[in-house]
Amino acid sequence: MNQSSNFEHTLPSQYREVYHLDARKPKVGVIMNLIALGVLGVVLLIAYIPVARGGLSLMADVPTALITYLAFLASIILYTVLHELVHGAAYKRLTGEKLTFGMSWSCAFCGVPHIFVYRRAVLFAVAAPLTVFTVLLIPLTVALFFVHPLCYFASAALFGLHLGGCCGDIYVILLLLTKYRSRELLVKDTGPEQFFYLPSGNAPHHD
Ligand SMILES: [Zn+2]
Q1: I need a labelling partner for 133 at 20 to 30 A (CA). Which of 28, 77, 82, 201 fits?
Q2: Are 173 and 126 in contact (CB under 8 A)?
């Protein structure tokens, strides 16, 4: 893979900014986290259906409940770190450039702040954790159903946190698949902020 064809070191002169997303803005951060909570709620409701249908109980003896609870808390922390590392691994593989990791009040983040990345590479890097952890967590959750309903439900909750937590990523993916499909699109991804650029004359019309 030719990394240098995936990005530009400086913004070409004919390009201008066409879109800017900042997860640290109060409105964006609050909406993003409310959507994440809503997604978690829907996932938990759906996950509870087989428990209710099977007449099962989420009650467990104290050791099982304690271990499940501690494992759940640890997995949330581990997941948050791994999610950003997967973004980072993809950006590193695609560009070879310096990464940035961090945390703001509204989200954890990873970016490549010093370069301008072409659409295809951004799409790949932004979608990587969503794809990887969806593929891992769904079979894990199904398998845990046969271990204990509580383990299953904790895993389903982790999947709900994953899917909800990906809502910012999903929003960027949707933008790249709909309004900003030009292969000329360049993105500066600082982590919490994404700046989209297109050559002037190529910008999508404003509504
Ligand atoms: Zn992400």
Answers
A1: 28
A2: yes
